[in-house]
Automatic annotation (TrEMBL):
Gene3D superfamilies: 1.20.1280.50. Transmembrane segments: none annotated. SUPFAM superfamilies: F-box domain (SSF81383). This is F-box domain-containing protein. Pfam families: F-box-like.
Length: 211
């Protein structure tokens, strides 16, 4: 008597078009699981040409998840949103929530070493001194309560990835002309602002998703 074939081997025997039809109505979390089942599925699902399939699957989810950020691939976005793994060390951690502003999930250990919270504005790149580097990168601004104000003399704090801060600072310092530096700052601020608007929509989605 022959052993019954594994379910996934039956699936991979189907015509490619049929597999796509099945996969595009599958929940993104299940797609991530399927991608781990076999090399064939991983090759199919992680190939850049499968982006539309992921988009379809992500759009089917209710309430509709905000669009995948331009800086991420759809599978990476689905992994961040639906799987409970630390972005930095890969450990499973149910308690690690998505930080929508930094687009990471961090376990306690990695949060300590990778995410920085500062009560003071950092390096100010422009001569008018109005813009600090925290505004040029994915970051979250939080307003502190009055007790913190009296204790620390600060009314707000920034949280961001230490690596993002160092990378943007190095890039800025490598630019020679004042005009180019100003343009760089303006472009980065526009990018960071649109990222924060997207993060805010994701936060609202997350609250609805949990309720
Ligand atoms: Zn970790």
């Amino acid at each position: 008597m022959h052993d019954a074939p594994a379910p996934y081997s039956l699936l991979t025997d189907l015509p490619y078009e049929i597999i796509l039809k099945i996969v595009e109505v599958t929940h993104p979390k299940d797609l991530l699981t399927i991608a781990r089942v076999s090399k064939q599925f991983r090759g199919l699902l992680m190939h850049p040409t499968s982006a539309s399939l992921w988009k379809h699957s992500l759009a089917l989810h209710e309430p509709a998840l905000p669009e995948c950020p331009a800086s991420m691939s759809e599978p990476r976005w689905a992994h961040l949103v639906f799987e409970e793994q630390c972005t930095f060390c890969g450990a499973n951690d149910e308690a690690a929530e998505v930080n929508w502003y930094l687009r990471v999930r961090a376990c306690k250990h990695c949060a300590k070493s990778c995410i920085k919270t500062s009560l003071q504005d950092g390096f100010r790149p422009l001569s008018d001194g109005t813009t600090s580097f925290e505004r040029l990168i994915p970051s979250k601004l939080a307003y502190l309560d009055s007790m913190s104000f009296f204790a620390f003399g600060c009314f707000r704090s920034w949280s961001y990835l230490a690596a993002d801060y160092e990378a943007v600072k190095a890039e800025y310092l490598s630019i020679r002309s004042d005009a180019d530096r100003r343009q760089f700052v303006e472009e980065r601020i526009a990018l960071a602002n649109s990222g924060r608007a997207h993060s805010h929509r994701c936060e609202i989605w997350s609250q609805k998703h949990q309720s």
